[in-house]
Design goal:
- It is a single chain.
- The chain has one domain: 2-Layer Sandwich (Heat Shock Protein 90), CATH 3.30.565.
- The chain has a seven-stranded mixed β-sheet.
- 33% of the residues are buried.
- 29% of the residues lie in helices and 23% in strands.
- By secondary structure, the protein is α+β, with helices and mostly antiparallel strands.
- The longest helix has 22 residues.
- About 3% of the residues have low confidence.
- Helix 3 runs antiparallel to helix 5.
Length: 253
């Protein structure tokens, strides 16, 4: 009986392998390996987000020769969740009285990984790689679908820019969804969060206009876990205040 011819092999060839190869953007890589950036669990993700934003604020103020005044606000967006649910959705906002950010740089600073001004300097600074705050915004987008919200003003006489943007991980570029100018800086909504913030605002101690004539606020909604104690946001801010006695840090949670 005649033997049937063997079926053609389905093994890959150099040509078929070459056809499948493609470049991976740095943001696409980190989106799939976010643990490398400090976002491997909800509690650490919340801490990393606050740390990156506060470090940026301190660096910006010190470079501009401004005594840092930084306000950190953490809002729980799911306060009535079941006790068995450990993580929650949070809105994290950091406001500083730094020099502000010029309009054309906002998308690059907050919407691109590995973009910054410090990497090539031979000078110590808290942030260097140009990854942190844009990675926090990327994590927030991946876990909540919400864009970053930025308010920034570079002069007391100028209007503030109100920008909302989301990172495109395939192109490592920001996609702006809102671009307005406003007189509302720092955003008035922060002053009315709690009875405590309203009381401090009335006494001129919370986000005073005289101190926040210029500056930047960054808001990120993300999945996180807020707990006090060792390795918490509270401990980080306490240690940061001790290490930077020239800075005033206000924490609302």
């Amino acid at each position: 009986m005649a033997r049937k011819p063997a079926k053609s092999s389905s093994r890959a060839t150099a040509e078929t392998m070459a056809a499948k190869q493609r470049e991976i953007s740095v943001s696409e890589f980190f989106a799939k390996n976010r643990h490398l950036l400090g976002f491997d669990n909800p509690r650490k993700a919340l801490l990393t987000t606050v740390k990156e934003a506060v470090d940026n604020s301190l660096d910006a103020c010190e470079e501009a020769g401004i005594l840092p005044d930084i306000t950190v606000v953490i809002e729980d967006l799911q306060p009535n969740r079941a006790a068995s649910v450990k993580s929650s959705k949070y809105r994290v906002t950091i406001v500083d009285n730094g020099p502000g950010i010029v309009r054309k740089q906002i998308e690059h600073i907050f919407g691109r990984l590995l973009y910054g001004s410090k990497f090539h300097r031979l000078k110590m600074s808290r942030g260097q790689q140009g990854i942190g705050i844009s990675a926090a915004g990327m994590y927030g987008l991946l876990t909540t679908g919400r864009p970053m919200v930025i308010h920034t003003r570079t002069s007391p006489k100028a209007k503030a820019h109100h920008i909302e943007l989301a990172m495109n991980t395939k192109t490592n570029r920001a996609e702006v969804t809102l671009d307005n100018e406003t007189d509302d800086f720092p955003p008035a909504a922060f002053r009315d969060l709690t009875p405590g913030t309203r009381e401090l605002t009335a006494s001129g101690e919370f986000l005073p206009a005289s101190i926040y004539a210029t500056g930047t606020s960054v808001t990120i909604e993300l999945e996180g876990q807020y707990r006090r104690g060792k390795g918490s946001v509270d401990e980080f801010l306490e240690l940061t205040a001790i290490a930077n006695p020239h800075a005033r840090i206000v924490f609302v949670a």
